[in-house]
């Protein structure tokens, strides 16, 4: 009987220890290329996004080990090394974390430890893969367009559009399937910043996220982004009417420029990405204008001469307006535009059906609706 009691007591103590909250976690580091004595700094971000060193150690014989306080709120930390540019990012979580760090390529470092880090690096690698493939396809598309290889360009445009939809679906699924992970907050933030999903949909998805994550720095940042975005002009909303001076000095309204499909194109002569995109917009306009595509360009210029010179140089044969007030342009403020180029695609009833389509994605969408 005594032996049974002692066995039960031992089991009880073991379970108690397992359930007891850890008061620290440890990083075990193996390095390549670092000198003995190189300082290692653990950095965290405050709620105001300011970095601060929270602990440090040194590398000895290619290794280091550091014990850090337990994590109350999940967040990103990063390691920096004395006189070595760059950093190594990881998610601070209450599990041992093993790192293999290469001095000559910090970005190639390997992190192993905990479900959060596993999911984060899976997400990061997948997104980087999408980016790489998108750049390759876009380069091929640009070459095919310049060589007037129409069929090849259209095929590449379709591939790019499919990849765009796949990436959007992947980020959305990560958020839906991992409501207890900080990576879900990261995926939703990316979707909102990329403007590929309406803010109100992000808000709905955010309601499913665990409440503890909403109290974190990243959760509070996302909540503020949602508050700033919901209610603004978005996909599914009615375009707000406006009017402004044309290059000729007359007043032109959105209503005057409407077609079967209408692009509101926010740009400026001084905006290099806008000028790079203009030849693509011109080509799409020339191809689909007779089928009902109209464009109204809203410039954030402040120098009328440069505005007119850019219209002529880029052969922008559509309606143009501007109050020449730079970032204080009233129409840009009305539409919540904070960076350019920015585009809004409207149907014949003035409803916004897409935003910020460029390159092959723009042509694919126009072709889908008008061909």
Taken as a percent bin, the fraction of beta residues is 15-25%
Spatial gap, N to C terminus? 85 Å
What average pLDDT do the residues reach? 89
- The coarse silhouette is elongated
Helix content: 40-55%
Unreliable segments (pLDDT under 50, ≥5 consecutive)?
Answer: 1-21
The neighbouring-strand order within the major sheet is: 13-12-11-14-15
> Major β-sheet, in short?
5 strands, mixed
Query: What class would the helix/strand composition place it in?
Result: alpha+beta
Q: How many strand elements?
A: 15
Continuous helix count: 12
Structural features, described:
The protein is α+β, with helices and mostly antiparallel strands and about 375 residues long. Helix content is about 45%, strand content about 25%. Strand 7 and strand 8 form a beta hairpin. The N and C termini lie far apart (about 85 Å). Residues about 1-20 have low confidence and may be disordered.
């Amino acid at each position: 009987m005594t032996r049974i009691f002692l066995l039960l007591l031992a089991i009880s103590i073991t379970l108690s220890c397992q359930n007891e909250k850890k008061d620290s976690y440890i990083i075990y580091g193996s390095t390549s290329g670092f000198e003995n004595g190189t300082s290692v700094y653990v950095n965290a971000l405050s709620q105001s996004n300011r970095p601060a060193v929270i602990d440090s150690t040194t590398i000895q014989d290619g290794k280091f080990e550091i014990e850090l306080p337990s994590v109350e709120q999940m967040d990103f930390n990063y390691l920096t090394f004395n006189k070595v540019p760059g950093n190594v990012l990881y998610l601070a979580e209450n599990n041992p974390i093993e790192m293999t760090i290469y001095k000559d390529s910090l970005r190639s470092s390997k992190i192993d430890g905990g479900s959060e880090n596993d999911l984060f690096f899976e997400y990061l690698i997948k997104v980087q893969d999408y980016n790489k493939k998108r750049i390759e396809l876009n380069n091929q598309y640009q070459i095919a367009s310049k060589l007037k290889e129409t069929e090849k360009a259209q095929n590449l445009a379709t591939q790019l559009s499919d990849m765009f939809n796949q990436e959007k679906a992947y980020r959305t699924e990560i958020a839906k399937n991992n409501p207890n992970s900080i990576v879900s907050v990261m995926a939703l933030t990316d979707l909102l910043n990329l403007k590929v999903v309406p803010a109100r949909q992000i808000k709905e998805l955010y309601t499913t996220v665990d409440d503890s994550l909403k109290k974190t720095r990243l959760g509070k940042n996302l909540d503020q982004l949602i508050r700033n975005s919901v209610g603004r002009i978005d996909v599914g909303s009615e375009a707000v009417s406006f009017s402004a001076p044309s290059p000729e000095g007359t007043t032109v309204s959105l209503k005057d420029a409407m077609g079967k499909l209408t692009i509101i194109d926010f740009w400026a002569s001084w905006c290099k990405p806008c000028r790079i995109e203009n030849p693509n917009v011109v080509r799409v306009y020339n191809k689909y204008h007779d089928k009902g595509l109209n464009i109204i360009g809203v410039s954030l210029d402040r120098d009328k001469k440069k505005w007119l010179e850019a219209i002529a140089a880029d052969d922008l044969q559509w309606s143009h307006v501007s109050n020449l007030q730079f970032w204080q342009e009233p129409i840009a403020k009305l539409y919540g535009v904070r960076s350019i180029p920015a585009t809004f695609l409207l149907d014949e009833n003035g409803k916004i059906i897409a935003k910020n389509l460029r390159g092959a994605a723009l042509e694919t969408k126009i072709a889908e609706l008008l061909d």
